[in-house]
């Protein structure tokens, strides 16, 4: 199943129009900069980034389903794999991995070895509590919630904070099955 | 927060020399439109929205110019206005929008030029939620940023070209630049 998703991811990547990732990195930097100027604490900026990501996620999911042509997920495990292999590839052009699955498949960690958001970025000591790419958490939360899958998404490791990789923990809260069967 | 390994000084890290680092255009558009929405909500006056976007564009354009000249190993500085504008229309525009733009010289005033983009690719980028003029301020800011970085002072204003669907950018160099050119 994993190979199928990798293939889907790659074919979706070839279908989409692309732009230079540097302008993206710099634009995102400006976004974070604006938020830092508007809000006092790193915590508030984190929340704002998550909110922004949420709004993006609820709009992005339709396009994702249309372009990637994935089928309905049979389990949360499928959701995780699709997120890593298809969505990350299609939008960011990076290969992500799902790992550290919880025993009952209710949570996983998404690992991004290469993250286009953080190129050229250095986090000063003043903002050591900032999760710079928190927008990704919001995007995941927003898009899954539109599919009636309620999740808790938190950033766990970020290269800007000195860790050696980027990790996001996605934990399932609930699936509203009645409505989800009508979608897709 | 414990660190896993000592962080390399950001200035020592290699700039990724791969010319093909790309990201999905749609993802960029989502981020950009969300940022425009955020700025609109946080700007008391609507006229300030264009200014804010222009400022953001300047900041990005400034850095992009430095990054690109470094990557392309351009060792010689451009001294003439026409040369730097040709760099923008050919090299820079192609990197960002995929196609080169055309440079025109306006007959009525000395030192005034016009950048006319190809309608198809550019409108995709500027035709976002709030319509042409607002997002074109961003692109005008990008051009200004590049010119600032190259030490040319100019005023950039977007204006409709022959028909309303294409927006061009009118560039008016400041008097000291024109004096500089006439001296050489």
TrEMBL record, chain A:
Pfam families: TRAPP
CDD domains referenced in this protein's UniProt entry, alphabetically: TRAPPC3_bet3 (cd14942)
Protein localization: Endoplasmic reticulum; Golgi apparatus, cis-Golgi network
One GO location term (cellular component): TRAPP complex
Keyword Endoplasmic reticulum part of the UniProt annotation: yes
InterPro entries hit by this protein: Bet3, NO_sig/Golgi_transp_ligand-bd, TRAPP_component
Protein keywords: Endoplasmic reticulum, ER-Golgi transport, Golgi apparatus, Transport
One Gene Ontology biological process: Golgi vesicle transport
PANTHER family in the cross-refs: TRAFFICKING PROTEIN PARTICLE COMPLEX SUBUNIT 3
Role: May play a role in vesicular transport from endoplasmic reticulum to Golgi.
Quaternary context: Homodimer.
UniProt protein name: Trafficking protein particle complex subunit
Source organism per UniProt: Anaeramoeba flamelloides
Automatic annotation (TrEMBL), chain B:
GO CC annotation: endoplasmic reticulum; TRAPPI protein complex; TRAPPII protein complex; TRAPPIII protein complex
GO biological process, one term: endoplasmic reticulum to Golgi vesicle-mediated transport
Subcellular location field: Endoplasmic reticulum; Golgi apparatus, cis-Golgi network
Any Pfam family the entry gives: TRAPP
Family: Belongs to the TRAPP small subunits family. BET3 subfamily.
Complex and partners: Part of the multisubunit TRAPP (transport protein particle) complex.
Protein name: Trafficking protein particle complex subunit
